[in-house]
Amino acid sequence: MARGAELPQDPDRRDGAFRRALRAGILGVTLLFVVAALAISSALVVYTAWRHDLSHGLFALLFAVLSAQIAMNWFLWRDDDE
């Protein structure tokens, strides 16, 4: 193709590609936070059970349950627009 004969880019197509890339980036960052919360909450439950620390163990179990619920909601959110 000649230098001046480039095909015009459709603005809607570029905007759609940008939105998909932005969504993928946001999903990736939130996935990192979800995985970190699951790992930390699981380790906290194991640690408090190993130490037989009942008062902190209840907090650890609550944190683990909430982290699991966040993980399930993340998968629902990911599939929402697809």
Structure description:
The protein is mostly helical and 82 residues long. It is 83% helix and 0% strand. It contains two helices and no strands. Helix 1 runs antiparallel to helix 2. The longest helix is centred in the middle third of the chain and has 41 residues. The chain is rod-shaped and about 60 Å long. The mean pLDDT is 83.
Topology readout:
Elements: H1 11-51, H2 54-80
Helix pairs in contact: 1-2
Tell me the span between the first and last alpha carbons: 37 Å
Poorly predicted regions: none
Helical fraction: over 70%
Shape summary? rod-shaped
Number of β-strand runs: 0
Order of helices and strands: HH
Estimate what percentage of residues fall within beta strands: under 5%
Number of helices: 2
Describe the main β-sheet briefly.
Answer: none
**Average pLDDT taken over every residue:** 83
Question: What structural class do helix, strand and pairing data support?
Answer: mainly alpha
Radius of gyration: 22 Å
Provide a quick synopsis of the model.
By secondary structure, this protein is mostly helical. It is built from two helices and no strands.
Q: Could you list some keywords that capture this structure?
A:
mainly alpha; 2 helices; 82 residues
